[in-house]
Amino acid sequence: MVHLLELAVTFIERLEDHLEIIRNIPHLDENLKKMSTALAEMDILVAETAELAENILKWREQQKEISSCIPRILAEENFLHKCDVTVPP
């Protein structure tokens, strides 16, 4: 008797799952369109993220170049000030 009750409970649970799947079939086309749209949007975001990452890396390299030039520029300014040379604006 207990075994039959367990089988009945399992059957009812699976039946509910199957009924839910059947209820969702009319919405399948709509859901597929939504998924397709979401996938296209994700592709765009991936491309934009890759471009942004590339720009960040370029900016970082530029900042390194600028930072490495600062001591030389300051040294040149100090040298020019010692020689009383003015640099036009």
| Estimated radius of gyration | 34 Å
The percent of residues in helical segments reads over 70%
For the termini, the CA-CA separation is 99 Å
Q: How many strand units? A: 0
Q: Give, in order, the helices and strands.
A: HH
Structural class: mainly alpha
- The gross shape turns out to be rod-shaped
Task: Return the domain count.
Answer: 1
What is the average of the pLDDT values? 83
Quaternary organisation? single chain
Largest beta-sheet characterization: none
Number of helices: 2
Percent in strands? under 5%
Unreliable spans are none
InterPro entries: HAUS2
Pfam families: HAUS2 (PF15003)
Organism: Balaenoptera physalus
GO cellular component, one term: mitotic spindle microtubule
List the helices and strands and how they pair.
Layout: H1 2-24, H2 28-82
InterPro entries: HAUS2
Organism: Balaenoptera physalus
Pfam families: HAUS2
Notable characteristics:
89 residues; HAUS2; mainly alpha; 2 helices; HAUS augmin-like complex subunit 2; 0% strand
Concise summary:
The protein has helices at 2-24, 28-82. It is an all-alpha fold.
Q: What would you say this structure looks like, in words?
A:
The protein is mostly helical and 89 residues long. The protein has one domain. The chain is built from two helices and no strands. The relative contact order is 0.04.
